[in-house]
Structures are given as structure tokens and as C-alpha cells.
């Protein structure tokens, strides 16, 4: 609704306003400032001659300059057009168990996949005396400091099942009778 109202006021008498703006005389531009450099060059031929004259001292200095240029190393591309990494990182096979279809097959050393992270956190939670930080670091090729941080700050969810209330406890309250 508001758009219609503003459109009416915006388009009101638009032809007359446009013709009035077109019929106005154009303003005269401000006079341009004559720069000092152009004035000096136009007035004195000595400066023109000085600029165009070759200086032997500068020419000898220029001849002493030696520029050596090398092209950047050529990157090898594979068939898909992606750049191949110049340095191959060490990879290890993942330890996935029954969740093998859900995750990647190889990861870089010093890293773990998401399924592995959840597995090792759950193992440590269930059996902390067997799955210690040192054993996890050795098993998954991780640094001990990172494993300690992982075990300290990431805790897997726990599911608590509460006992269901008995039927007797639920129906012990008698419904009120309407009289």
C-alpha cells in the first residue's frame, strides 16, 4: 500500500519536470587552473632542452644495472586440472571397525577422522584404565598434548533412561466427580 502512494507522488507531473530540467541552460564550467609545470615548460625552451638531453653519467649507471629474472617453478597438473601437491603427506589407514562405510579410508598422520574421534572418546569413557591418553596417542599417531586436550574438552553424550512410573502410581489420584 505504501509503495503505491510513493509511486503516485514520484510520478506526479514527471513530464513537465523533465522538460523544465532539459530546457535550462547548462552551467558554465569553472575555469581550469594552469599548472606551474606546463607554464614553465611552455615559457622556457631551456627546460625542454634539459629534459630531452641525454646524460652520460646516468647512462653509465644504467649500464651497470643487471637484472636477472627467473620464472616460477612449473606446477604439474593431473588430468582433472587440479594441482598436484608438491610434497606428499604421510597417510595412515583409519581404524573404523563396524562404521567403515561412514567415513574416509585414509587420513594424514597427526589427524583423526570424525568416526575415529567418537570411537576413541567412547572407548576412553567406558574403559579409562585401558584406553589411556598414551595408548590413544600411539594407536592413532597423535601427539600426547593434543590427546589430553581432546579427552579434557570433548565428552561424548550419555543416554540416561529413567524408570517408568508404575501404573498404580499414575492412577492413584482419583478423578473428581462432578455433582
UniProtKB/TrEMBL annotation:
Basic and acidic residues composition-biased segments: 18-27
InterPro entries named in the record: NDUFAF4
GO BP annotation list: mitochondrial respiratory chain complex I assembly
Region (Disordered): 18-40
Pfam families referenced in this protein's UniProt entry, alphabetically: UPF0240
Any one GO cellular component localisation term in the record: mitochondrion
Protein origin, superkingdom: Eukaryota
Record-linked PANTHER family: NADH DEHYDROGENASE [UBIQUINONE] 1 ALPHA SUBCOMPLEX ASSEMBLY FACTOR 4 (PTHR13338:SF4), UPF0240 PROTEIN (PTHR13338)
Subunit structure as annotated in this protein's UniProt entry: Binds calmodulin. Interacts with NDUFAF3.
Family: Belongs to the NDUFAF4 family.
Name of the featured protein: NADH dehydrogenase [ubiquinone] 1 alpha subcomplex assembly factor 4
Amino acid at each position: 500500500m505504501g509503495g503505491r502512494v510513493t509511486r503516485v507522488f514520484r510520478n506526479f507531473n514527471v513530464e513537465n519536470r523533465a522538460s523544465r530540467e532539459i530546457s535550462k541552460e547548462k552551467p558554465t564550467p569553472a575555469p581550469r587552473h594552469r599548472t606551474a609545470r606546463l607554464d614553465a615548460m611552455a615559457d622556457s625552451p631551456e627546460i625542454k632542452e634539459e629534459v630531452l638531453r641525454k646524460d652520460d653519467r646516468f647512462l653509465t649507471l644504467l649500464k651497470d644495472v643487471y637484472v636477472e629474472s627467473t620464472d616460477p617453478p612449473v606446477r604439474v597438473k593431473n588430468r582433472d586440472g587440479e594441482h598436484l601437491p608438491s610434497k606428499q603427506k604421510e597417510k595412515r589407514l583409519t581404524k573404523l571397525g563396524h562404521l567403515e562405510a561412514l567415513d574416509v579410508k585414509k587420513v594424514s598422520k597427526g589427524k583423526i577422522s570424525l568416526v575415529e574421534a567418537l570411537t576413541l572418546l567412547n572407548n576412553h569413557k567406558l574403559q579409562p584404565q585401558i584406553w589411556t591418553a598414551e595408548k590413544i596417542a600411539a594407536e592413532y599417531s597423535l601427539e600426547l598434548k593434543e590427546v589430553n586436550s581432546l579427552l579434557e574438552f570433548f565428552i561424548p553424550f550419555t543416554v540416561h533412561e529413567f524408570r517408568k512410573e508404575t501404573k498404580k502410581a499414575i492412577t492413584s489420584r482419583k478423578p473428581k466427580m462432578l455433582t
